[in-house]
From TrEMBL:
Keywords: Membrane, Transmembrane, Transmembrane helix. The chain crosses the membrane at residues 20-45, 87-106, 118-138, 159-180, 186-210. The lineage of its organism: Bacteria, Candidatus Campbelliibacteriota. PANTHER family: SMALL-CONDUCTANCE MECHANOSENSITIVE CHANNEL. This is Small-conductance mechanosensitive ion channel. The keyword Membrane applies. One of its GO terms (molecular function) is mechanosensitive monoatomic ion channel activity. InterPro entries: MSC_TM_helix, MscS_archaea/bacteria_type. It comes from the Bacteria.
Length: 225
C-alpha cells in the first residue's frame, strides 16, 4: 500500500514535470526565434547606419573639430560609423531580447532590461556626449580667454584661462551627473555654489590683475581730454 502511494506520487510528479516541459518548449522556441530575428535585424540596421555615417563623412567633420585628438588621449580611435552602428545594433537586439523574456514569462529580467538598459542607456549616451563636448571646447576657450586677457594686458591672464577651462569641465561633469540622475538635489546645490565661487574668483582676478590696465586706460582718457 505504501509503495503504491509512493509510486502514484512519483508518477504524478513526472507527469506534472512533463506537462510543464511540453508547455514551456513552444514558448522557448518562439523566444529563440524572436531573439534570432532581433539579432539579424539589429545587425542589418547597424550596418546601414554605419554606412550612412561613413558616406556623410562624419569622421572628417569630427576630426576638423579636434575630436580625434581628444579620443586618442583617452585611448580610443575615431570611428563614428562603427560606434553608431554598434549602438543601434545592440539597442535593437536588447529590445527583441525584452520581447523574448516577455514570452518566457521572466518578468523580473524583463523589468531589469527595460528600466536599466532601454531607459537608462540613452541617459548615459547623453552624459558621455556632454563630456565629449566639454573636452572639445575647454582647451579652446582657455586659449581664447588667455589671449584676450593678455591683449588687454591683464596680469592674471593665465589664471583666468585656467579658471575658464576647469569651469567648463566642472559644469560638464555636474550636467552629466544630473543627466544620470545621480543625487540630483545635491548636484543642483553644488552647481549653484560653483557658479558663485567662480564669479567671485573671476571678479577678484579681473579686479587685481586688471587694476594697472584700467589705470592706464583712465590715464589715457584724461590725457586725451
Amino acid at each position: 500500500m505504501i509503495l503504491k502511494n509512493w509510486s502514484d506520487v512519483l508518477a504524478q510528479s513526472f507527469q506534472d514535470l512533463w506537462m510543464g516541459v511540453v508547455g514551456f518548449v513552444p514558448n522557448l522556441v518562439v523566444a529563440i526565434v524572436i531573439f534570432v530575428a532581433g539579432w539579424i535585424v539589429g545587425s542589418l540596421l547597424g550596418r546601414v547606419v554605419s554606412q550612412i555615417t561613413k558616406s556623410l563623412k562624419v569622421d572628417n567633420a569630427l576630426r576638423s573639430a579636434g575630436t580625434e585628438a581628444v579620443l586618442n588621449k583617452a585611448g580610443f580611435r575615431l570611428n563614428a560609423g562603427k560606434f553608431l552602428g554598434e549602438l543601434v545594433k545592440w539597442f535593437v537586439i536588447i529590445a527583441f531580447l525584452v520581447a523574448s523574456f516577455d514570452v518566457l514569462g521572466l518578468s523580473q529580467v524583463n523589468d531589469f532590461l527595460q528600466q536599466v538598459v532601454l531607459l537608462y542607456l540613452p541617459q548615459v549616451i547623453v552624459a558621455v556626449l556632454i563630456l565629449l563636448v566639454a573636452a572639445l571646447i575647454a582647451d579652446a576657450m582657455e586659449n581664447v580667454v588667455k589671449g584676450s586677457a593678455k591683449a588687454a594686458e591683464v596680469k592674471s591672464a593665465n589664471f583666468l584661462g585656467t579658471v575658464t577651462k576647469w569651469a567648463i569641465w566642472v559644469f560638464a561633469i555636474l550636467m552629466a551627473l544630473y543627466q544620470l540622475g545621480v543625487a540630483a538635489a545635491f548636484v543642483q546645490t553644488l552647481f549653484t555654489g560653483v557658479i558663485v565661487a567662480l564669479a567671485l574668483a573671476t571678479g577678484l582676478a579681473f579686479g587685481l590683475g586688471g587694476r594697472d590696465s584700467a589705470a592706464r586706460v583712465l590715464k589715457k582718457l584724461e590725457d586725451e581730454a
